């Protein structure tokens, strides 16, 4: 019989160290992702298609896109598109 | 005096990136910590936290102060953690691949006694095998130390439904620890 289960759960999860650098790292990553997604949306609207996905194609044709910036826009679609372009 | 969350969200809705960064620095600690304890992976916790704050950026114009921002962020974090865990489970089922990012595979802390460290590692590994919502209920109550009503609110369920999840989660966790299966 496992004794003090909640206490063990608490202790087990608290062994995972906090990540004090997370807020700063998130702010930087989110800034880049918002910037790229805005670029997609603008390019999509300009293309007449009005979607970020169409924007991705237009933006990609205008220049390289770092793959990590594109995650969150539909990873599977991005993988397929990157393979196709 | 610091601006309130409601005022900052209103500024985010108007495209104010500085207000958005203030909200990230104010709230991402608990969002990331919950995701980290739930996923047991720093990379997954980063992904969840990014998704939560992107949701905030997109939803800011529609956000109404009917609940606190903290409660809203808890709910979005809970949903994104559970969605990610389900995707991972499906992917592992499809590929048979182990989860290489899990902290459960890390070496124990040198300050811990060996028996204690291995036991706690076994608890983490067992938790990773729990159904997603049972695992989340245990993390919110046992580790985050939310009250029953706060944890139920975060999961958008009744306190009674939370209690059922906790009972089933503890029972299954015991079964995995004692017998190696659920």
Task: Give descriptors for this structure.
heterodimer; A: 85 residues; mainly alpha; 5 helices; B: 182 residues; 8 helices; elongated
Describe it.
The complex is a heterodimer of chains A (85) and B (182). Chain A has 85 residues and is mainly α. In chain A, 72% of the residues lie in helices and 0% in strands. In chain A, helix 2 (22-47) packs across helix 3. The relative contact order of chain A is 0.10. Helices cover 73% and strands 0% of the residues of chain B. Chain B has helices at 5-13, 17-39, 42-59, 69-95, 114-128, 132-143, 148-155, 159-179. Residues 100-114 of chain B have low confidence and may be disordered.
Describe this structure in a few short sentences.
The complex is a heterodimer of chains A (85) and B (182). Chain A is mostly helical and 85 residues long. Chain A is 72% helix and 0% strand.
Number of helices of chain B: 8
Q: Helix-strand pattern of chain B, N to C?
A: HHHHHHHH
Rough outline of chain A: elongated
The backbone outline of chain B, from C-alpha atoms, is elongated
Topology, number of strands of chain A: 0
What is the number of strand segments of chain B?
A: 0
Question: Which percent range fits the helix content of chain B?
Answer: over 70%
Q: Largest beta sheet of chain A, briefly? A: none
- Count of DSSP helices of chain A? 5
Helix/strand class of chain B: mainly alpha
Radius of gyration of chain B: 18 Å
Low-pLDDT windows of residues of chain B: 100-114
Structural class based on helices, strands and sheet pairing of chain A:
mainly alpha
The greatest interface here is:
A-B, 28 and 42 residues
Poorly predicted tracts of residues of chain A:
67-72
What string, H for helix and E for strand, traces the elements of chain A in order? Answer: HHHHH
- Biggest sheet character of chain B: none
The percentage of residues in β strands of chain B lies in: under 5%
